Structures are given as structure tokens and as C-alpha cells.
Amino acid sequence: MIYEYITLLAFIGAYVYGGLMTATAVLVACSIIIVPILWKKQGKAPKMHIFTAVLVGAFGAMTLISGNADFIKMKPTIASLALALVVYVLYARGKNPIKSVLGGAFEMDDKYWRILTLRVVELLVAAGISNEIVWRNFSE
After folding, report:
1. Among 39, 63, 133, 135, which has the highest number of CB atoms less than 10 A from its own CB?
2. DSSP code of 104?
3. Which residues contact 26 (CB under 8 A, 6 or more apart)?
4. Cα 103 from chain centroid?
């Protein structure tokens, strides 16, 4: 479980001591390094970690190459909205990705899984919109 927080803690530490560009470089490195570690430890790489590593790698690279921090600030918006879209499309096709992920931990009627799935989509859209409002209207 601690592996999931290493990247976040490394980013925060690098940001405090070196600023956003240093933190971005650390975030990219940690995101890429954590996938094979989790793969070795768990026997497979969690899809969410791969998705995050690809997004962080792409937006981090654009940030570091261009020197424009807006790219890394956009990453949470795009990640949230992309995930919301994936969950909604799967839901619309008759699948329930939230139940697939959490079904072993909770027992509920399908009606409540559908409600939860739609609430997760709403939460992800709200997170994406909130990120846009914050990074465009507030200083670092």
C-alpha cells in the first residue's frame, strides 16, 4: 500500500525544496519506476498506475521540454475527465466498471451499483472542472 503514496510524497518533497519543475521531473521518474515495482510485487501492473504513468509521462515531458508549467497543471483535469468518460462509456454499454473494481469489497444490489457508478462519473467531472478553475485562477 505504501507504494501508492511514494510518488505523491516524492512530488510534494521535491516541490517544497525545488519548485514545480523539479517536482515534475521527480513525479515523472517515480511514476515510471513504480509500475515495474508494483508489477513485480503484485504479479501485474495495476491499470490505473499504467494510465497515470502514461499521462504523467506525457504531460511531464511537455512541461519539462517547453518550460511551461501549464501542461502539468492540466494533467489532473484530463485524467479526471478521461476516466469519467471511460467509466460512463462502459456503463452505457451495459458494464459496470465500479462494480468490477469494488465488487469484492462491497455487496450491493445492481441498482445501487448503477447509482454509485453514475456518482463516480459526476465526482470525476466535478474534480476536472474544479482543477481547471483552481489552476487558471489561483497562483501556485
Report:
1. 63
2. T
3. 10, 11, 13, 14
4. 21
Instruction: Classify 34 as helix, strand or coil.
Output: helix
Identify whether the C-beta of residue 135 lies closer than 8 Å to the C-beta of residue 73: yes
Give the global pTM.
0.81
Give kind and range of the element (H or E) at residue 114: helix 110-137
Provide the 10 A C-beta neighbour count for residue 112.
12
Please give the grid coordinates belonging to residue 75: 494533467
CA distance 134 to 116: 26
Q: What is the pLDDT of residues 17-46, one digit of tens each?
A: 999 999 999 999 998 998 898 888 888 877
Supply the DSSP string of 72-99, one letter for each residue. HHHHHHHHHHHHHHHHHHHHHTT--HHH
From the list 15, 44, 42, the residue with the least C-alpha distance to 30 is 15
CA distances from 137 to 72, 96, 132 (A): 15, 36, 8
